Amino acid sequence: MSFNYEKLSSLFKNNDLDMIIGSTKENCRYFGGFTPVVKTLNPYFGQSYVVLHKDEPEKVNIVHSIGEIDQVLDSFSNIGHVQPYGLFYREYDGKSGLTQDEIVLMEYSTVPKTIISATEALAILIKKLANGKNINKIGYDEDGLQSDIFVNIKSEFPGVFWEKISSGFRKVRHFKTKNEIELLSLSARINESAIHHAVSNVTDGTSELDVAKWFNQSLVSQEALPSLTMIKAGRHAVGGQRKQKENLTLRSGDILWFDSDAVYEGYWSDIARVYAIEKVSPEILRRYEALRNGMLAAYSFIRPGVTGKQVFEHVMETVHKSGFREYRRHHVGHGIGLEPYEHPILSPHDNTIIEEGMVLSVETPYYEFGFGALHIEDPLIVGENGNEFLTAFPVPELKIL
């Protein structure tokens, strides 16, 4: 099963729900097994829904635009009812032989069966799933459901109580399945590999823009997508979110900074590395080693039952005891999955209890005007008997190029 069935069942039970409706791109991907194109073509108004019923929570029912309904054929989920909406034409002369996929797609594409609006389609699907039984309570994903659409669909079911459960969806997604861990690991290792590829081409005088091009090209060649590629040279890393520039080049003594995100099959990786160009001062090396000690301390300390706050305090204490007493930070990591930032946030105010199966992107960044940045970041999977980094070469020593 592609999603966490146990946690989903708890969501149904704990909230006494008859059905749940997912509507964000991430929740459609999580349950439906594909990322709805309509959510990219029209991110503010595009509609796609996954609907699950308490009697068959393992079965995913889908509302989707008919123009992109072929995406359902790529799903690895257990698909139940599929209700298309809108208009789109796939012609058939009645003579050509059809594959099994084409037969299914033709069924989904039959124009008389489609409904003009997504709201109508969703109402029809809910009634199908109810199968004549009373519906008392529906949990809905308010983060992806516009208020006017919600009012319209709610009016179709008088007497039904509707409960917001976007936070509940996120809690289900905290705990990664085996398949998700494999995808997150692939995302991380592709990201890491692209950094190594880019660095292998760097010489004195290389521009930020060249490094970014090498990095992005490597990601794409490995079937991942670049997103939030943050690469800066020397002192410019203090404002690392700015775009790379051709006139900003690496010189002897600079630090080359990566805080790079990649997306593989919808799953994010967020990795940070720094490299010294030709030489590094003892003071910078001392600070880097303190930050590295903080990362290794997080790896050893994180376990089921501790809070984000406790992890933060332990990492900061380790960095300070390692000689970097002036180090300040607002968090030292975050959950990661279908979104680049998921809970928990490893911050001084986060009382979220860490549990087995969470994937956390742990980091110890440092930024300074006139210098630039030091930064290490790696994702790890939380285990009952120990953690495991998802990168192949986690928490490296500072390398001089």
Number of helices: 11
User: What topology, given as strand order, has the largest sheet?
Assistant: 4-3-2-1-5-6
Profile the largest sheet. 6 strands, mixed
SSE string, helix = H, strand = E? HEHHEEEHHEHEHHHEEEHHEEEEEEEE
What structural category arises from helix and sheet content?
alpha+beta
Mean pLDDT, to the nearest integer, reads: 95
Please describe what this structure looks like.
This protein is α+β, with helices and mostly antiparallel strands and 401 residues long. It is built from eleven helices and 17 strands. The strands form four sheets. The protein has a six-stranded mixed sheet with strand order 4-3-2-1-5-6, sandwiched between helices. A hairpin with a 6-residue loop joins strand 10 and strand 11. Helix 8 crosses helix 9 and helix 10 packs antiparallel against helix 11. The longest helix is centred in the middle third of the chain and has 23 residues. The chain is globular, with a radius of gyration of 24 Å. The mean pLDDT is 95.
Topology summary:
Elements: H1 5-15, E1 19-22, H2 25-32, H3 37-41, E2 49-53, E3 56-65, E4 79-85, H4 100-109, H5 118-130, E5 137-140, H6 147-155, E6 161-164, H7 166-174, H8 178-200, H9 208-221, E7 225-233, E8 255-264, E9 267-276, H10 282-301, H11 308-321, E10 333-335, E11 342-345, E12 359-363, E13 366-368, E14 372-374, E15 377-381, E16 388-389, E17 399-400
Parallel strand pairs: 1-5, 3-4, 5-6, 9-17
Antiparallel strand pairs: 1-2, 2-3, 7-8, 8-9, 10-11, 10-12, 12-15, 13-14, 15-16
Helix pairs in contact: 8-9, 10-11
